[in-house]
Design brief:
5-stranded antiparallel sheet, 15 helices, alpha+beta, binds flavin-adenine dinucleotide, 4-stranded mixed sheet, Alpha-Beta Plaits
């Protein structure tokens, strides 16, 4: 179709462009003034730090990013703390000077959850520590990644009941929920957190658990950094197996057969590790596979693979026998951190609605564009933490639509698709997981948290009365 523009239209467009340019200039001068004001303030008042302040623009811009590559918010200043005292000092200053604070772990969020524009970002990466307390517990720093903790526990023949991707941070995982391949039967990582050390939004260093400051504990686990910054977490340990039979059952392009077998295995309980993934197929399209792990101790012989495969409907299989170390080290690095927009979507869908929802979504080209689904089947009775919201049914499907877009893709259009998929799932009784790329308002969050909203809001008022923490998610009024 041809496109023409009249002289009047051109003049109007030029004026609009000029005023937009003027507005952008004013906005960027304001941002510059605000950033230098914040820089002066933190430089003057945050003294005696063990960590570093990052104030120059080029270095701050590096923080305007996350895995999703959609949202880019440049912080006014960055604190890289090396002690809890550094964090306490910053939060106290924020309370007296009206600063906002965001917290960043490994920034594997999709939509700016670990960024902040008009405030100070705390980069937790140097807050790593590790202490095996005893056979039942390990203490890890809020900025640590999980890999070293899993290795230290394994050296004592212990492990975490749920292990998510080990390149993610402790604070980020526990602020979202932390799912892994044993979640189907063991719940989230937040269900195995015994105690936390946090700096509250009021600037107090507090320990909390089920028994001590439990309202704070429940508002921090899966709480998206809204009430406190996690500086340490004590995690439950259980006996580690010595070996794992690791099997991939392949279903070619038949996602529903794969998902039905996955659900069958989640109910049957013969494996410890369960997941469903997809990968590009050499002649086009996707291939689905159910990934299973049978944990055992070499002192007693494991079942035969034919026994483990009984009742499944796969086309082919691939079997490996690993030591536990080979198993937990199988994916230590994030290989998908590409420089491309990734508006991925994590949903929980009641099993009774899954076939219709996934069948419809994958058959509609607009919704299925660039999607590679990953799926889990989780027992509904294994989740205990109030803010970790999942669909309420006996069996739940985590339905993760990974999308890697070409750089020139119409990102707002994909975000609108995500929003409509979320609404559809919400109306079917499902939920989102919080790392997803979905435009969300505060009323969406209130609806998302449902009965947990009241206690969450009360904890926010008590522990972060001046609302200094976590503003970019817009969970609480900014
Ligand atoms: C490649 C990839 C793999 C993933 N694998 C998994 C997986 O196995 N399991 C899973 O559950 N999810 C997974 N996710 C989803 C999700 O991105 C992560 O759960 C989440 O990002 C946690 O890790 P992070 O350190 O990157 O957190 P960030 O993205 O840095 O932060 C997430 C949220 O936590 C807050 N936060 C971070 N640190 C702290 C702290 N110390 N105190 C308080 N608040 C804090 C941030 O402000 C933000 O709101 C994955 C995502 C990607 C891209």
């Amino acid at each position: 179709m041809g496109y023409s523009i009249t002289r009047r239209g051109f003049a109007k467009g030029a004026l609009t462009a000029l005023s937009t340019a003027a507005l952008l200039k004013t906005t960027s001068s304001l941002a510059f003034a605000r950033a230098s004001g914040t820089a002066d303030l933190v430089r003057k008042d945050l003294t005696g730090l063990s960590g570093e302040l990052v104030l120059d623009e080029a270095s701050r811009k590096v923080y305007a990013d996350d895995f999703g590559k959609i949202v880019h918010l440049t912080p006014d200043a960055v604190l890289v703390p090396r002690s809890t005292d550094d964090i306490v000092k910053l939060v106290k200053l924020a309370n007296t000077q009206g600063l906002k604070i965001g917290t960043r772990g490994m920034a594997h969020s999709m939509y700016g959850q670990a960024q902040i524009e008009d405030g100070v970002l705390v980069d937790m990466s140097a807050m790593s520590s590790l202490r095996v307390i005893d056979d039942g517990a390990i203490e890890v720093g809020g900025g640590s990644t999980w890999g070293p903790a899993v290795a230290a526990a394994a050296a004592k023949k212990r492990t975490l009941p749920v292990i998510n991707d080990t390149f993610l941070s402790v604070g980020g995982s526990l602020s979202t929920a932390g799912f892994g391949p044993t979640t189907w039967n063991n719940g989230f990582m937040v269900d195995h957190t015994l105690e936390l050390e946090v700096v509250t939004g009021a600037g107090d260093l507090v320990r909390c658990s089920e028994e001590q400051n439990s309202a704070l504990f429940n508002a921090v686990l899966s709480g998206m950094g809204q009430c406190a910054i996690i500086t340490k977490a004590v995690m439950r340990l259980v006996a580690a197996p010595t070996n794992v039979i690791y099997i991939r059952f392949f279903y070619r392009d038949d996602v529903l057969s794969a998902a039905h077998d996955l659900a069958f295995l989640a109910k049957d309980g013969r494996f410890n590790h369960l997941d469903l993934r997809s990968r590009p197929y050499p002649i086009g399209g996707l291939e689905y596979y159910v990934e299973c792990g049978f944990f055992y101790d070499q002192s007693s012989p494991p079942p035969k693979v034919e026994e483990l495969a009984k009742g499944l409907h796969f086309a082919s299989q691939e079997v490996k026998t690993w030591t536990y170390e080979e198993y937990y080290r199988r994916a230590e690095t994030c290989y998908s951190c590409l420089d491309a927009p990734k508006p991925s979507l994590y949903l929980t869908v009641p099993a009774s609605k899954f076939d219709a929802f996934v069948g419809k979504t994958l058959n509609e080209p607009e919704r299925a564009a660039y999607v590679a689904p990953w799926i889990s089947a989780w027992r509904g009775n294994v989740f205990k933490r109030p803010l970790a919201r999942v669909a309420s049914e006996d069996l739940i499907f985590r339905t993760q639509f990974n999308r890697v877009l070409p750089n020139k893709a119409d990102i707002p259009a994909f975000l609108a698709v995500n929003r409509s998929l979320y609404e559809e799932v919400r109306d079917l009784g499902g939920t989102r997981l919080t790392a997803s790329a979905i435009p969300f308002t505060q009323s969406d969050w209130i609806r998302h948290y449902g009965p947990a909203w009241g206690p969450f809001e009360a904890a926010k008022k008590k522990y972060d009365p001046k609302n200094v923490l976590g503003s970019s998610s817009k969970i609480f009024a900014v």
